[in-house]
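Running log. JK asked me to keep both predictions on one page so they can be read side by side. First protein, sequence followed by its tokens:
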Amino acid sequence: MNLIFNPDNIHRSLKKRLSFFLYRNMFKSGRYMANVNAPELAKMYADLFCCSKDCFPVVYDSMEISSQLRSLGECQKNEFYVFFGGRAERDVECMARIAKQMPNVKFVCVIGTNMLIPTLQNLPNVEIYIDIPQDDFNMKLAHSSLCCIPLKSKAPCGLLVMQRAALLGIPIVSTETYSMRTIIPSDDYGFLCAQGDDKAMVDKLTLLMNDANLYHKVAANAKEHMKQFTKEEVGKQICQAVNYMLARQ
């Protein structure tokens, strides 16, 4: 389920090169298949591994949140802050540049120990939490007013946090990737910017902060769009993928 391979990492280590070699030979053989969570990823992986797009049926990542977490998101927010969090392929340097350009806005960053950098740590408007439990992570997200997560990979990453944000009614500003486009298909649902483009993300955050109608519109649209990611809907996709795989045997 859900093949995740970053094409930019192939030559970074022996482990990555070995993984690439194994994947390429598996998929070129025509005997193996793996799901991807965005249609465009099928072409990307087919080009990368020199195989057919048919090796990669599309199955979305399902996401539902508990009634307790949903109620937290519906509560009156005590303060305004922008949330940044998670681990996989997070662009911490870009996040630091964004926060530096918005000194009057509070940012809450929930990250791992190895992600901490001085340029982020030394900003007075940034509050950092390191390696906190999942429930606390979700609470920090639920109490936020905006979710901004710059990414540094085209491979699937950041999707689960963004899906939670959408279900909580929190507008999203992030990096454009194939997977992210499944939950933010256009600017009517949130904003996706080019990789590393801190200026564009600052502009979109500012736009959402200054336009209440736009803020509520994109939040409502993204939340409604998340009906495509329920367990029932994704379960149908899994059944279709399995039947497709069996038909190819």
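And the second, directly underneath as requested:
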Amino acid sequence: MNPRAPFHPGDGRQRYAGPAVVVFPDGREVSVTASLVLRYDPSRTDNREYDRDSTWAGSITLTDEISDVDLFDAAPGVLRMPDGRESEFMATSGPRESGCSGLGPAPFGTSGGGT
């Protein structure tokens, strides 16, 4: 059997994995672990230039397992990174772990400032 390719190959995409805070529309804040990627693929010729900083997605997971928060209620919400950068996102599932899709500039990466 052939070995499986790495889940995230060295594709040159900017990523962030680490702590963040979700701010709900009503102002509540919860700590999460985020795993995010800029979808813009520099190797493709059909990218639109405005996608360079604004096409991002990933997942968020509550860090407090006893919280009664439903991440799907953060639609739209704000994702705040440890360095203070923020961006709106839509939660795509829930309640404890959710996919997310960015609305606007990514709060991480070279242009967004994260790593």
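Observation for JK regarding the second prediction: Confidence is low (pLDDT under 50) at residues 111-115.
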